[in-house]
């Protein structure tokens, strides 16, 4: 499984529509998706699916017109396809480097253990493949529930994940840790898995997806969310997670470089529930890193830190405050597709 910083051909977006939980706030969330799409087009293509065909046609005209007007390298591949929701990171295909080039693995998706409807999302990758979005790259079904947001790859056979997510019985009830490690080795080429047993984010529906907590920035470097406020409900779990990260070692035996990310001010929804704002939910693309910001005082510090972590890439903020109202952020609504797959 390649690292996220490996060359890409496109980013996948599943567009919000009135049949999703975004129906009451489409006027607030669509500008976020448009911002993401326009930014990605500066560097690569966008595979964009939408259940509503008229809206899809509008988006195709608008975004391709924008790209042509500004001389951008990316183009939109627009695909009419049903969807329950918009979390492409979790229902999108997971890429591996096969013997004959890239392959896309179509793992099962069951909405984080059956929390919400999922049947349309589970079939979405096949719709995209049938449309020709992935060219001649094979889409290989895998009868195992796995979300892209639950795993981080260093591109060299090491996987970072959380035990709370992968071992949750509502996903793969017949498989224990050893069986999951074996399957990850067979499907993703994993040689070893680093399991985090701690880590928590209020308002998160995913059972502690790793992409909200800790991320590979290079083969020897992990950045992670850190909370220094002892009165915050996250303090103990994140302090324990930090201690675990400090004990991890690379395959060569050396310790990882670790970079803490700032802890944003608490943000609450209309119902008083704390929302899962995290700077770890950034997206690495060709030549850039898109960073979620939330209109709080820690935004600038997070951007500065990640600019230092990725000195060879542009660091571009995206206002994701509307996204966290549905308990996800920037990385959650995107899925990168490797180089050589999408041709536009």
TrEMBL record:
<dbReference type="InterPro" id="IPR007466">
    <property type="entry name" value="Peptidyl-Arg-deiminase_porph"/>
</dbReference>
<dbReference type="GO" id="GO:0047632">
    <property type="term" value="F:agmatine deiminase activity"/>
</dbReference>
<dbReference type="GO" id="GO:0004668">
    <property type="term" value="F:protein-arginine deiminase activity"/>
</dbReference>
<keyword id="KW-0378">Hydrolase</keyword>
<dbReference type="Pfam" id="PF04371">
    <property type="entry name" value="PAD_porph"/>
</dbReference>
<protein>
    <submittedName>
        <fullName>Agmatine deiminase</fullName>
    </submittedName>
</protein>
<dbReference type="GO" id="GO:0009446">
    <property type="term" value="P:putrescine biosynthetic process"/>
</dbReference>
């Amino acid at each position: 499984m390649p690292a996220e910083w490996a060359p890409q051909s496109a980013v996948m977006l599943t567009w919000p529509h009135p049949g999703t939980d975004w129906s009451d706030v489409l006027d607030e969330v669509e500008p976020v998706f448009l911002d993401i799409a326009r930014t990605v087009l500066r560097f690569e293509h966008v595979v964009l699916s939408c259940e509503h065909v008229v809206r899809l046609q509008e988006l195709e005209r608008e975004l391709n017109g924008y790209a042509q007007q500004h001389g951008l390298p990316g183009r939109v591949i627009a695909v009419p396809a049903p969807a329950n929701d918009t979390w492409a990171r979790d229902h999108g295909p997971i890429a591996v480097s096969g013997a004959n080039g890239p392959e896309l693995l179509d793992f099962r998706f069951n909405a984080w253990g059956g929390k919400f409807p999922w049947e349309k999302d589970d079939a979405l990758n096949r719709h995209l493949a049938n449309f020709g979005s992935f060219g001649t790259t094979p889409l290989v079904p895998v009868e195992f529930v796995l979300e892209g947001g639950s795993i981080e790859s260093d591109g060299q056979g090491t996987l970072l994940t959380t035990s709370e997510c992968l071992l949750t019985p509502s996903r793969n009830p017949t498989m224990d840790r050893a069986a999951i490690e074996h399957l990850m080795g067979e499907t993703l080429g994993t040689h070893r898995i680093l399991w985090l047993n701690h880590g928590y984010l209020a308002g998160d529906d995913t059972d502690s997806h790793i992409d909200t907590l800790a991320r590979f920035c290079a083969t020897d470097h992990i950045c992670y969310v850190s909370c220094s406020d002892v009165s915050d409900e996250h303090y103990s779990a994140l302090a324990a997670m930090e201690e675990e990260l400090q004990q991890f070692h690379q395959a060569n035996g050396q310790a990882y470089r670790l970079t803490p990310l700032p802890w944003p001010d608490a943000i609450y929804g209309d119902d008083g529930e704390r929302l899962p704002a995290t700077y770890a939910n950034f997206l690495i693309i060709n030549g850039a890193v898109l960073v979620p910001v939330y209109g709080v005082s820690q935004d600038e510090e997070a951007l500065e830190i990640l600019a230092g972590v990725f000195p060879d890439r542009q660091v571009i903020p995206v206002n994701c405050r509307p996204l966290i109202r549905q308990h996800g952020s920037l990385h959650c609504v995107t899925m990168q597709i490797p180089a050589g797959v999408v041709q536009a």
